[in-house]
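Researcher: Re-running this chain for the archive, since the previous output was lost when a drive failed. Same request as before.
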Amino acid sequence: IGSLAVSPDGRFIAVSVTSALNIGSTQDAVYVLSTADGHEVFRKYFPKYTRSTVAFLGAHRFVYTDLGGVNVLRIP
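Model: Regenerated structure tokens:
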């Protein structure tokens, strides 16, 4: 896990994962999960070693970084 965030209202958890080594098969990705039932709300894969960070801006705005910069999404 490279980064972790919880939405201010506690409805969502965001996590980014990355490979810490040059061996293994963990693909860099960002996930947003619902805390109510654990279902996946959002997922995006990235090139190896992207090392994204995640955050929430209020209850409905999710932010993540990638090689292109900062991305802001609306979460329902």
